[in-house]
Every structure is written in structure tokens, then in C-alpha cells.
């Protein structure tokens, strides 16, 4: 199983428009962050978690020629705004793209992309909505287990696939979900910045959760320019934790 970080930035991305801070003006490519998204590939399936405004650019950069499904963590615009561009995959496969989302997220997709579900014009993207339940679901033999987390007042999903888990945009993980994460060897978890935030983990809060789950290796994503530069923050982290960056890949052999 191969993991690729398509984007590791917040809703504004990094650099932020009109910002002249040290992070936004950094020459280090690891400080250039598209909106958060992640790709998982096996020999049989290619999945993307969330498709934000940079989806097209991310697909082109990684030379993605096949996409089996998109799994949505929640309905915020920085996680769904790029879904119109699935039409390229529609043309190639001559089929709709499977979109997995819980009911309230499906309703948001139907509102945002009303033309997809009401208009019969041949050039529109084709999406096939599939439900997510607490009991999990299967994509071409790959078992996906939803992990409930909180994003301010919004309940959203992280996901576990075997020994890998992906959590973004969370500010709280209930103990019942921590229990579902025990045994994970590779964890991706969000941390917006070092200072506390109202709807996302701070860096120290993310590390506290990493210690509870105790994976072999952890990656921080959904990073804002306020976190600081990659080269400055990285030495401060525990040895088993690293800041993810756009284009970073790693393989998982269970």
C-alpha cells in the first residue's frame, strides 16, 4: 500500500495570498502546501481522501491516470471544491466516480454540485454517491473503517485501513475512537499551528494523541503558515513524528 500526500495545507494553503511572513516567502518546497488531500494506492485500487480546490493540480502533479473512488471526511469547501474535475476520469473509464460520504455530506455535495445531479448535459461530471456507516465499507476488497472525530461543533470522519489511519480537521478524538485506532502503525493527523485553535489540533495536542495511539510512525498534516518553516519545526518533533509535505510518499507492508 502506497500513501501519497497530495496536499498538506489548510483552507488557505501556503503561501497565503498577500502574506509576507517567513513561511509564505520561504524558498523551501516543503513549505509550499496545497489544500489537504491524501491518495492511497494498492495493486487493485486508487483512492483519494477529499478533493479540494487543488484537486486538478494534484492529479496532474502525481500523474494519476486511474481513480476508483473519493472518500470525503466532511463537507467544507476546502475538502470538496475540486470534485468537478472527476470528469476527466469519467471520460477515461466511461463510468461515474464513486463518492463515499455520510448522509449530511452527500446533501452538501448535492447542493454544491446541483448541476451534476439535475442536469443531463453530457459534459458534466458523473458522481455515484455511496453511504458511509459506522460499521465501515469495502472498496474492491479494501476494508475502510470510519473513525468519528470532532471538528468544532461538527462530527466528521477519519478513517482506518489496516495498520494505517488518516485524521484531518479534528480538534478532539473521543476515547471510543482512540480504541479503534489502537494497533495502527502509521498515523496521519492534523495540526494547524503551535498555538491552540478553536477547531483544529495544535501541534502539542496532536502529539498527545499520537502518544495515546502509539503508532510506529506519525505524520502531521493540515498545516498553516503559522506553524513556521519546515526546517525550523522539524528538529522540535519527537523522532517518530514528522511534518508531512506535498508529494511525500511512503509504503506500508503489513
Could you explain the architecture of this structure?
The protein has helices at 55-61, 77-80, 87-93, 103-112, 114-118, 175-181, 203-213, 230-233; strands at 2-7, 37-41, 46-49, 69-71, 97-101, 127-131, 137-139, 142-151, 154-161, 164-167, 186-190, 217-221, 241-243, 249-251. It has 254 residues and is α/β, with parallel strands linked by helices. It has one domain (2-251): 4-Layer Sandwich (Metallo-beta-lactamase, Chain A). Strand 3 (46-49), helix 1 (55-61) and strand 4 (69-71) form a beta-alpha-beta unit. The radius of gyration is 17 Å and the shape is globular. The mean pLDDT is 96.
Class by alpha and beta content: alpha/beta
According to CATH, the homologous superfamily is Ribonuclease Z/Hydroxyacylglutathione hydrolase-like
Beginning-to-end CA distance, first to last residue: 9 Å
> Considering DSSP H and I runs of 4 or more, what fraction of the residues is helical?
10-25%
* Largest sheet descriptor: 7 strands, mixed
CATH fold name, please?
Answer: Metallo-beta-lactamase, Chain A
